């Protein structure tokens, strides 16, 4: 596995919540972390695509 997917992040946080018995605490953190991972991966993909095309912003 090359990179962590947003779903995997959510699954990890959900599993921690189930194991600790505090699912209501860990699941929202997992949702936020999954969104952050998705946004960061999207930005990196766009940066790599523009770098491959030789384009510049501005």
What does it look like?
The protein contains two helices and no strands. The protein has 58 residues and is an all-alpha fold. The termini are far apart.
Describe this protein with a few key phrases.
58 residues, mainly alpha, 79% helix, elongated
How would you briefly describe this protein structure?
The protein is mainly alpha-helical and 58 residues long. It has 2 helices and no strands.
What proportion strand? under 5%
Structural class determined from secondary elements: mainly alpha
Order of helices and strands: HH
What is the general shape? Answer: elongated
Query: How many β strands by DSSP?
Result: 0
In angstroms, what is the radius of gyration? 16 Å
| Largest sheet descriptor | none
Distance between the termini: 35 Å
